[in-house]
Amino acid sequence: MQGHRDGHGFVLRDDGEPDIYLPPNEMRAVLHRDRVKVRVVRQDRRGRPEGRVLEIVERPPHPIIGRLLNEGGIWLVAPEDKRYGQDVLIPKPAIGDARTGQVVVVELTEPPALYGQPVGRVKEVLGEIDDPGMEIEIAVRKYGVPHQFSDAAIGEARALPDTVQPADQRDRVDLTDVPLCTIDGEDARDFDDAVYCEPAVVSGRGKKPNGWRLLVAIADVSHYVKTGHPLDVDAYDRATSVYFPRRVIPMLPEKISNGLCSLNPDVERLCMVCDMMVSAKGEVVAYQFYPAVMFSHARFTYTEVAAILANTRGPEAARRRDQVTDLLNLHDVFRALLKARQARGAVDFDTVETQIVCDESGRIEKIVPRVRNDAHRLIEECMLAANVCSADFIGGSKHAGLFRVHEGPTPEKQDTLRAYLKALGLGLSISDTPHPSEFQRIAEATKDRPDAAQIHMMLLRSMSQAIYTPVNSGHFGLAYEAYTHFTSPIRRYPDLLVHRVIKAILAERKYQLPALPTPGEAHEKLRARLQKNSAARKTDAPPQVKRQSPEMLAWEAAGLHCSANERRADEASRDVEAWLKCKYMKEHLGEEFGGTVSAATSFGLFVTLNDLYVEGLVHITELGGEYFRFDEVRQELRGERTGIRYVLGTKVRVQVSRVDLDGRRIDFRLVREGDELVSRALRDKGVPAGERGQPARKSAKRSARQQRDTDRGSARASPMQALKSAVKKATAKAGKNGKPRKSRR
User: Fold this and answer.
1) Is residue 489 located within the same domain as residue 605?
2) pLDDT in tens, 218-242
C-alpha cells in the first residue's frame, strides 16, 4: 500500500504490473505500507485499474511519527507523513510525559476499521517541532534508518585498539615511506582513500618513462569488522552511511569510521592497495592487489589541490612545496585516464549539485552549487580505475561477488527519447541497441543550445538506476564491461564485501557469506521492478533472479538489500533537504525571483529559482485564463488560445505564494514574464493589442474545468464526502432560525 495525502492510495503490485488505484472509501481500514490482497473491480475515469481490498496480508511494525494534539478533550497524533490518511487516537493514560504540540513516535495498539480510527500509545518523545535537527530525527524514523548501534557492536568497537598494532602489520607490504595523500572535501571527517602517482616505464625496454604507476590505497575495514560479528551485523543492517546537512548516520561506529580505519594524516593505517600501471593512452595495462600498511603524508582539500594545479607558484603551492610534484603526476595520469574515458564514450553530463549551508541552530544560511574542479575529477578517475580492476580481478577468479551494474535504457524509455529528439528536429537519435557514446554525442552536440539543460535532463531520465548484483551485466553509463565498488568500505557495505572477496582470492580460499535476513518489503519492490525491466528488454530473467545455487541466492539477497537501503538513504536525505528548503522559503513568502522551468507536467510547471536553487510548483491554474494541454513527447505545456509554450529551460519570474512544510511543497505564482510571454504569443497570432490582456470567457471556463480535472494527485470525492460537503454548504447558508434558506431554483 502506498497512501496519498489526498485520501486515496495505490497498491504497488509484486509482479511489477501497473499500480492499482484505491478510492478513499477503500483506504479506511488500511494503512500506508500495509501488504494487501486486492481485486481489480473496474477501470477508473483515467484508465487506471481500480481495486477493492480483500485482505490485509501483513502490517509491518513501522512507527508513526507526528505531533500530539488535543482537540476538544480528545488526544490524537496527526502523522507527519501525510500518506497515513488518518489521525491516531491516543487514550489519556497512553500519553505518558508528552505535551501538546510535541513530536512523538506512536505505536499502534488498535488498527483502523471501516468505522473507527486507529488507536495507539506514545512510544517516544522527540521534542518540539522547532528543535534543531528535529527534521533529521523525524526522517530517520520515518524511513526506518537504523540510527542506534547495538550494545554488542558498541562493546566490540570499544575493545578495538586506538592505533595500528605490530601484530596487525604482519604479512603486509610496508608503504609508510611512499608519500600517499588524501584529497577530500573541506567538511570530510572519514578518509577512506589515498593516492600516489609516479612516472614509470610501462611498455618496451627503454628507460624513459612512458606511463605511470598509480597507487590507490583504501582503508582496510575488513581487518577489524569480521564476518558475522556484531559490528558486521549492524553494518549490514545499515548497508550505507546516510548524509544529512550537518549530520551523518554512519555505517560504522565513529571510533572506526573517523578513527582507526580513517586514513588520517601522520599516522599509520592498514589498507588494501590497488597498484596499477597506466599507459600514456590511459589504459591500465597491469595491476595487483595486496594488503599494506601506509602513512598519509598530507590531507588535501579539493579546493587546495585545484589552486595548486592552476598555479604551481602560488601561496597554496608554496605551503605544500614537497607534494607539488606528486600532485602534478596525479594530474598527468588523470588527463590520460580522461582521454580513455572519452574514447570509451562514457556518459558525462554536467549537472548542478547543491549544498545546503546551515548555521549552528540548523537554520539554512544559503544554498550554493557544488563546483566540480579538476581535483574532484582527478580523484574520481583514480577511483574508477581501481573499481574496474577489482571487478576484473573478481570476475577473472570466477569467485562470486557484488558487481555494480547499470543496464541500458528499456525499449519504452528509448522510444520516449527518440520521439522527444525527433520533435525537437535535432537530426540526432539513438539506435535500437544504443551505446553510451550515442548519449554523449548528443550531449556534446547540444551543449551550446539554450535548451541544453532540457535535452540533457531528458537523456538522464532515459537511464536506469544502478544496482548491486552477483551477475555482471556491465555498466552502461561508464561504458565498462565490468565494474564494482571497492573504494569506500567505511561508508558502503558492498565495498566491504568486495575487500573480503579480494582477500579470499589472494589467500586462495573462498569467501562465504554469513546467513542473511530474508529480503523485506523494499527488496521485493526492487525485485519486481527488475523483473519488469527485464521483461521489457525481452530477456529470460534479470541477473538477480537466476537462482543457480544457494550461494548465488545469498549474494542476490545481499545485492537486493544493499540496493534497497541505498535508495532508502537517498529518500531520507531528500526528505530532510526538502523540509529545510521549505523552512527557508517561508521567510521569503511574497517575494519574487527569477527561475527556470525544470519540469513540465499535466498539472503545472516545476520551476527552480536561479539564485536559491529551490524548486517549486506553478500550478496550471496559475498560468492564466485559458486551457493548457500537456504534450508528453515535447515535454511542454501549450496554451490553446495564445499558443504560448512552457518547456524545460523556459525563463520565468515567479512569486512565492505558499509553503507547505508537512507536504514538503512550495507553490509559486507566475508574474510579469508570464504576462509578457502571453502578450508576445498573442501578438504572433495576430490578436489586436487591445484584446491581448482580455482572456476569452470560453477559455476562462475551460481553465476552471481544468482546475477540477487536474492531476495534482487529487481524487474524486466519495458519496459520503459529497454529502458532508453539501450539508456543510447548507449549514453555512442557514438563516437565524437555523433552517437552510430556500434555493432560488
Assistant:
1) no
2) 999 999 999 999 999 999 999 999 9
